[in-house]
Design goal:
heterodimer; A: 116 residues; mainly beta; 7-stranded mixed beta sheet; 4-stranded antiparallel beta sheet; 55% strand; B: 115 residues; 0% helix; globular
Amino acid sequence: GAVVSQHPSRVICKSGTSVKIECRSLDFQATTMFWYRQFPKQSLMLMATSNEGSKATYEQGVEKDKFLINHASLTLSTLTVTSAHPEDSSFYICSARVATGGNEQYFGPGTRLTVT
Amino acid sequence: AQSVAQPEDQVNVAEGNPLTVKCTYSVSGNPYLFWYVQYPNRGLQFLLKYITGDNLVKGSYGFEAEFNKSQTSFHLKKPSALVSDSALYFCAVRRIYNQGGKLIFGQGTELSVKP
């Protein structure tokens, strides 16, 4: 089946630094990738939709200058949390939608970000 | 606007008993409906989906769900629960003609299966 990986799985950083999270589709090409944020025992909140070769589309209320998304290839999207603060601590999950137009999304295992 | 509601924050079931996790949706037009499961500190795993056709959809790990258009529901069911089914379950909806593929998730239901 389709596999999506995320790296790192867990990261701790100091306030004011930037952190990059990678999302890769391992065995398929993904024209569209999605980035979600999840607080403990809560639902996933869509942050942005990332299309290969174009600018990401951010959801209302998500700061595009703080959460930089790059989708440079059909198998890789990155989320960079710039000037991280403790309130950015969360579980970040990416998903990928197959380029052939499949209807389901395949989710990565998530990245736990802790900002101290 | 699209929305998904999972009315129960938590469902408790004894092992071996049938389980139901409820989901209702609101979407203009015909929906694609999905169920995902999430284990602690993990991403979401796809369980099943309804696109069209038979209203009863069978998925992974013995789960099934029934699409009911008149009640706008898509409840997840399993005839005999296992302790290992304990996890967080999410229902999601997407409009058929939403080419962007954006999923709207319910708030999640925590399933606890006791031995």
